[in-house]
Amino acid sequence: MSSFRKAVLTAALFAAAAGVTAQAAEKYPGVGRTATAKEIAAWDIDVRPDFKGLPPGSGSVEKGQDVWESKCASCHGTFGDSNEVFSPLAGGIGPKDIETGHVAKLKDEHAGRTTFMKVATLSTIWDYINRAMPWNAPKSLTHDEVYAVTAFLLNLNGIVPDKFTLSDKNIAEVQQRMPNRNGMTTMHNMWPGNEFKGTKKYDTNNTACMTNCAAEPKVASFLPDYARNAHGNLAEQNRIVGPQRGADTTKPEPKTFVPGAAAAAATVVAQAAPAAAAGGGGGADNKAAQALTAKHACTACHGMTNKIVGPSFADIAKKYPGKTDYLAGKIKAGGSGVWGAIPMPPQTLSDADAKTIAAWLAAGAGK
Amino acid sequence: MDHPAINSGRVRKAPENFLSQDGIKTVFSEAKRGRRDFIRNAFAAAAAGAAVPAALAQGNPVPSEGGDPNILNLPEHSKGLGQGVDPEGSYGMPSKYEANVKRRISPGLTQTTQASVSFAPLQSLFGIVTPSGLHFERHHQGWWDIDPSKHRLMINGMVKNPLVLTMDEIMRLPSVSRFHFIECGANTAAEWGNVAVPTVQYTHGMLSCSEFTGVPLITLLEMAGADWKNGKFVLAEGADGSSMTRTIPMSLIKSGEVIVAYGQNGEMLRPENGYPLRLVVPGVQGVSWVKYLRRIELGDMPYAAKDEAVHYIDLMPDGQHRQYSNLQQCKSVVTTPSGGQVLLDRGFYNITGLAWSGYGKIKKVDVSVDGGRNWRQARLEGPVHSKALTRFNIDWVWDGKPAIIQSRAMDDTGFVQPTYRQLRAVRGTRSIYHNNAIQSWLVEENGEVKNVQLS
């Protein structure tokens, strides 16, 4: 659309909108009602970059550390630098960055990126912790706890000192120390509308050349042979009829072309047998318990055979054979010190689910 | 249409040349009626003729007994009584032979299933609509199946009369139904630096297209008495644990394009896709299509939500991040043949794929089978909707030699999809999001198709 026509259209919509506003409520009688102040207060929790919406309160680095170790460290690591479950939150920031407001390490091709290397706005951190953390119990922190955890994270990143209390009164000053506060640009054409100014120009300019075009004929990147089956058997990931089949990646790549060979080899992936059909054997129970470990996000911290944040299921099974009740209690209540310094927070799941998982662990955590 | 040289060597003529006179008649009359089986049979009849090249006969050869046992021996389903409708009623499911066609996770991509992705099987889809059960999933904190009778939508902020609406009320309002694609901003992210995954399901599968039904957001804002003069940005917020928030572009709201949707492909949204209410923001990356939508706030500045201030920001080589980079630029991919597949035989193929643009309609798609040196314009299957997937296809005869298949889309702004070299020259390889480069599939002499990148 030409910018002229767009302008006219926008103007027309503006006029229409302004005209309709007065009687809009009358246009659809009986539909919708006025939200009460109480309802708005319950849901309108967002905090903007200018801190509009920020509730009063405060929290110290020290208190934040307590909250952190009991509710956050299991996923993010004691120092917010864990890369096991989620991307690291802390690190990569130098004192100079706090002066310039643009993290120098972002120019380093090989550097990883932490949350505080990227984020420009402190409101984002407060708002997100308040609305979505802890991961398995969002919105359970008090406002003061959110201030405290935010203060602790700021301290981990060298932005505030150890003896610091963050509050609604001083948060705007701390914003002025955010290490990447000058690190964002809206100079692109990927926001529709002119609110950010930006540019109308695309950043690439390919042409629709049709013949004898400047091509890049050399194959420069492909998957190595050892990765052939890394995404499972591709023969089972394609339809069994049609112009092609999936390659049987359980076997080495064929050296020559055999017409029709792929058609002959194609199979439908076996349908999962219903639990009843498995005859109540161990296999079905094992599958059910494993499904629960995924459902309740146990697998975020526990691998089948590998240590992640917590011990592997195999290691737990080895240590507590037959101890279903003990394990069910531990799952519900959480604990610390048995396997390492990072505590496991109490888990919100039904007694029945906890027992199913515990029984599976106690029976050896089979597949 | 002019067909420049596809490949040197054994280019076969069009199929008409090896059909008998009767066969051609059958193909034409049956093709009009859309009966593909008859076309295949006509080809089989042609294959029985002695003059047919050997390579083309091998897909469906005539057995020594003089006929196909699938024809000569009537199967059970031709001789017996079939199954009845379910007296209890039922929700229809695909054929058991289609069990390979499903969403999949990419191994090792995420540590949890709640903050994760499942990819749509683009290699097995036709047309432009993604069946709802195959629509890609992206969750930030797990999905829910919410009781619609208890779901509420609130409109507040810079409005005269903040509103609360029930689902009953939203579904009473005038509705629109529109086809739109949804693509995750991180689609094809694994491929910025090099080839990382084998198939189009994993390279491009965070992409789906549905007919969405709902109420234009502008209607609800008008009902609430929006302050159009000072209200410049809208926040959308979800009702799930993540309570996901995103700043929604006002120009798309004012154009009437943004929809508060409850319908998807003729039924309600699927729980994984936001049942009972989600925002549809045409052309904009999927993260803005807030699921389980509970609140709309009108304000006068952008919100810098977590997923527009920590994630979904594009790192440029100079160390700056592009923020509020919302639109999905013009892009396309060939889905058949595509990575991880094996061609059954030499001879004719209908290369087909998908093209889309967050800026408008697809104007044309070109296809190359020689790694981008020569291109031919593909057919657009239609319908061609704005900000929707567009299906294209083009004839190709595989002569058994290596070929590199690419597609290159152009949208109605005149923008042409870039090569990897062009994209990396501007954005480097670390921006994660918005990779819309031309995809290359290498057809090897052994018939296998591989994901490759060229230089």
Descriptive account of the structure:
Chain A contains 14 helices and 6 strands. With 367 residues, chain A is mainly alpha-helical. Among the domains of chain A are: 118 residues, Cytochrome Bc1 Complex, Chain D, domain 2 (Orthogonal Bundle); 74 residues, Cytochrome c-like domain (Cytochrome Bc1 Complex, Chain D, domain 2, Orthogonal Bundle). Chain A is globular, with a radius of gyration of 28 Å. In chain B, the strands form 6 sheets. Chain B has a 5-stranded mixed beta sheet. In chain B, strands 5, 6, 9, 10 and 11 form a 5-stranded antiparallel beta sheet that branches. By secondary structure, chain B is of the alpha+beta class. The N terminus of chain B is likely disordered. Chain B folds into 3 domains: 51 residues, no CATH class; 199 residues, Alpha-Beta Complex (Sulfite Oxidase, Chain A, domain 2); 122 residues, Sandwich (Immunoglobulin-like), CATH 2.60.40.650. Chain B is built from 10 helices and 24 strands. The radius of gyration of chain B is 25 Å and the shape is globular. At the A-B interface, helix 1, strand 1, helix 2, helix 7 and strand 4 of A face strand 3, strand 4, helix 8, strand 7 and helix 9 of B.
Strand fraction band of chain B? 25-35%
Measured by residues with Cβ under 8 Å of the partner chain's Cβ, the largest interface is: A-B, 125 and 145 residues
CATH architecture annotation of the domain at 58-175 in chain A: Orthogonal Bundle
CATH superfamily of the domain at 58-175 in chain A: Cytochrome c-like domain
From the 3D coordinates, which CATH architecture of the largest domain in chain B would you assign? Alpha-Beta Complex
What class would the helix/strand composition of chain B place it in?
alpha+beta
Oligomer: heterodimer
Lateral arrangement of strands in the main beta sheet of chain B: 4-3-12-7-8
Q: Give the overall average pLDDT of chain A.
A: 86
CATH topology name of the domain at 58-175 in chain A, in short, is Cytochrome Bc1 Complex, Chain D, domain 2
Structural class by SSE content of chain A: mainly alpha
The ordered H/E elements of chain A are: HEHEHHHHHHEHEEEHHHHH
Task: Give the N-to-C terminal Cα separation of chain B.
Answer: 30 Å
